[in-house]
Task: inverse folding
């Protein structure tokens, strides 16, 4: 939950910036987008496996030939 407390001397713009920053840091937008549509468990597993494969391939150093 995102809560922004107004302190003395804060303007509306600074409060809005704090809220936006916290909103992005909490990763709320991506969470809502993920939950917007139902995904079959098999599809979720395939996506996770694909991400793991991509991370693995990025971590391997390229061979010099």
Result:
């Amino acid at each position: 939950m995102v809560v922004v407390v107004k302190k003395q001397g804060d303007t509306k713009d600074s409060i809005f910036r704090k809220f936006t920053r916290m909103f992005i840091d909490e990763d709320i937008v991506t969470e809502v987008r993920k939950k917007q549509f139902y995904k079959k468990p098999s599809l979720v597993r395939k996506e996770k496996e694909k991400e793991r494969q991509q991370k693995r391939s990025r971590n391997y150093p390229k061979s010099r030939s």
About this structure: The CA atoms of residues 2 and 21 lie 10 Å apart. The mean pLDDT is 89.
